[in-house]
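User: My collaborator sent over this chain with a note saying "see what the structure looks like." That's all I know about it. Can you take a look?
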Amino acid sequence: MENRPNRGRVVLVGGGPGDPGLITVAGLEAVRSADVVVTDRLAPLGVLHGLGCEIVDVGKIPRGRTTPQEEINRILVAHAAAGKRVVRLKGGDTFVFGRGGEELEACVAAGIPVDVIPGVTSAIAGPALAGIPVTHRGLSQGFTVVSGHVPPGDPRSTLDWAALARSGTDLVLLMAVATLPAITATLITEGLDAATPAATVADATLPTQRVVRADLATIAERIAEACIASPAITVIGKVAGFDPGSETTGV
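Assistant: Without extra context I'll predict from the sequence alone. Here is the result:
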């Protein structure tokens, strides 16, 4: 029998912020042509309905079931090495706190071809769906996206929170529900005005979406009172108080 080259490959697909309608056309085509889909909990799971391919759930649940990243890498490589077209489906964009870079490295090291299809990151889409532009003429000339997975002062943290407090940019915090009290207290200590507008968007794009608005001093307390849980995005800065009914002038 003639030896044929292994045609297996991995496609890293950013699925967008949650609503299946917000995955890109290219991302949807990749999912529909896959032999195997390796999916996360926050991926747009509605796009998987009716597929005839194998679906592998490697979702991570906060303080619950989890699949180690090393095992996810092994699954991707093993299926692709068997000649299958593997789609790694994630929520948001695979390279924005999605560990897509780690999966890319693992596949390249194993000699597996990789394609990347970017997705709409929740860091921008979540605030937008709550009516919050992350930049707005007259209010903001930039924004900074950071992970709140570990709080200020934690040995694992590499963020300069004092610099962030002085940056003059809006702050967009991902994975920061549990650590928000420590983050807001640190920002205030480092000089950011306690009256700075803040807003938290939970379950962005989904029917369960909720928005809590407050100021820097009280946003953590307000989301606790509202029983907000992950996934949620917090915006700190003038844009969090954006009112489309008021006029602004800008640069």
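A starting point for your reply to your collaborator: Confidence is low (pLDDT under 50) at residues 247-251.
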